[in-house]
Design goal:
single chain, alpha/beta, Aminopeptidase, 15 helices
Length: 477
């Protein structure tokens, strides 16, 4: 693995010296179309609770059909009327190359109007930003991809292979993951040589200044754990020391004070090696210090204070939900919490469940795995997929297009600190690479949070990026 990653870095260093593609500016009609599609997607509620990915999939299908796509190349299908998926295809020149599949999810995380300064399901432009749920994760990329498909069709572009777009349900929650469902029920519609996942990678900026382009080469494993404490209950005037709420609260307090061990893998080590020269002062020094053998403990502590870097250096588990009690004047008979973990490659959910049991050190707190709509006493033993190095056919056009659009900033392999639908495609034997061209400030990551937003300029740069990248990827050189 070390050899292949070193080979990758050498390729990237060489490719940044290749002539860049000529610059291009979006015309007014393309900008308006891209904005309209983005607005339409943001204003369709696709949350698991009350939303519908089918409505969004049908809306995007209509866009493609209205642009002239053949009906047989645009499909909306799914397991029920709320969990629809869009699969669209641009026909290639009929050569021997298998298709390239691009995946992105249509569903978004829940958002409450009371928490936001704007309506999360209204597309608002102000102060140079687009606001709304999905402006970072990931309707921004869905809109870019639909726009790109329409532009290609308008130009009568014939790639050297078919290009398939799958916009799917339930990546953010729910029980009907669209990528998994399509692979199981309609593999023929999305079978491909490899996959581009627009829900990973990206362009890192600091206060709008370009720093580097990220390419996903690994990602953490997602796992939820249900903590449960019970008690016979009784009158609140007769408190007992083994209050179920106190057991849960104590367990979560111990979790907060018990970070998982520092750990680097080939991808995160490479990330910090290449990122350190782009930093200054203490941050640059600390990035170099954590790479030493042994790593510098003080540097680890300082780096851990930054949530982004902390999540790259260790497995993280955090409480996300609490529920307890049944009446104000009664002792709680049941208290529960959800702990969400993002697990480093090389470790399983069951390994982390057992570690949580050790941290809590309380036999009255049951720790069960919550996954797929079920609660079980044991978690899966499967681990995240190993690092995947993109081949030259993926990296070369990326280096050329990024060199032009993003001023030649370094391309750095990264480990996604979340998780993505690549777990399904990789498990199905489809090599998958996380690539997108939307720039996000590293200190303004608002996905899953309130007032989610993306710079207007970043969105339109992303529109241009995927248009040019897919052309470079699928044009005969």
């Amino acid at each position: 693995m070390k050899t292949s990653i070193t080979h990758w870095l050498c390729i990237l260093l060489i490719l940044t010296l290749l002539p860049a593609l000529p610059a291009a500016t979006l015309d007014d009609a393309t900008r308006q179309m891209a904005r309209d599609i983005f607005k339409q997607l943001i204003e369709i509620n696709t949350t698991d609770s009350i939303g519908s990915t089918t409505v969004a999939a049908q809306a995007m299908a209509k866009r493609l059909l209205d642009a002239g796509f053949a009906p047989e190349d645009v499909n909306v299908l799914g397991p029920n009327d709320r969990k629809g998926n869009l699969v669209a295809r641009i026909r290639g020149s009929g050569g021997p190359l298998k298709p390239v599949l691009i995946i992105g999810h249509l569903d978004v995380v829940e958002a409450r109007r009371a928490d936001w300064t704007t309506d999360p399901f209204q597309f608002i432009e102000k102060d140079g930003y687009f606001y709304g749920r999905g402006t970072q994760d990931m309707k921004v990329d869905d809109a870019i991809l639909v726009t790109t498909f329409i532009r290609f069709h308008q130009e009568k572009y014939r790639p050297d292979r078919d290009i398939i777009l799958a916009l799917t349900a339930d990546e953010e929650g729910g029980n009907f993951n669209g990528v998994g469902w399509l692979l199981k029920n309609h593999r023929d519609l999305i079978d491909a040589a490899f996959v581009l996942n627009a829900d990973a990678g990206g362009v890192t900026t600091v206060k709008g200044k370009l720093v580097n382009v990220d390419v996903e080469a690994s990602e953490k494993l997602y796992a939820d754990f249900q903590l449960t404490a019970t008690n016979p209950g009784g009158h609140s005037s007769l408190p007992v020391p083994d209050n179920a709420i106190y057991h849960i609260a104590d367990a979560l307090g111990r979790l907060e004070r018990s970070p998982f061990p520092f750990e680097l893998n080939p991808i995160t080590r490479t990330y910090f090696e290449r990122r350190a020269p782009l930093e200054t002062g203490q941050t640059a020094a600390d990035m170099k210090a954590i790479l030493q053998t042994p790593p510098d403990a003080a540097a680890i502590a300082r780096m851990s204070a930054d949530a982004r870097y902390n999540s790259l250096m260790r497995t993280t588990c955090v409480a996300t939900r609490l529920a307890a009690g049944h009446a104000n004047n009664a002792l709680p008979q049941l208290a529960q919490a959800n702990v969400n973990c993002r697990i480093l490659p090389g470790h399983s959910a069951e390994e982390i469940r057992q570690e949580l049991v050790r941290i809590f050190a309380d036999p009255d707190v049951a720790v069960r795995y919550a996954g797929g709509g079920n609660i079980s006493d044991r978690a899966p033993d499967a681990k995240s997929f190993p690092p995947i190095v993109p081949p030259d056919e993926v990296l070369k056009p990326l280096a050329r297009v990024s060199g032009d659009l993003f001023d030649g900033v370094p391309i750095i392999p990264e480990m996604e600190t979340g998780a993505s639908d690549s777990i399904y495609t990789i498990a199905a034997g489809l090599p998958s690479y996380g690539i997108n061209g939307v720039a996000i400030d590293q200190d303004d990551v608002r996905m899953h949070g309130r007032d989610e937003r993306v710079r207007v300029s970043s969105y339109f740069a992303g529109v241009e990026f995927y248009y040019r990248y897919l052309k470079a990827l699928t044009s005969r050189q």
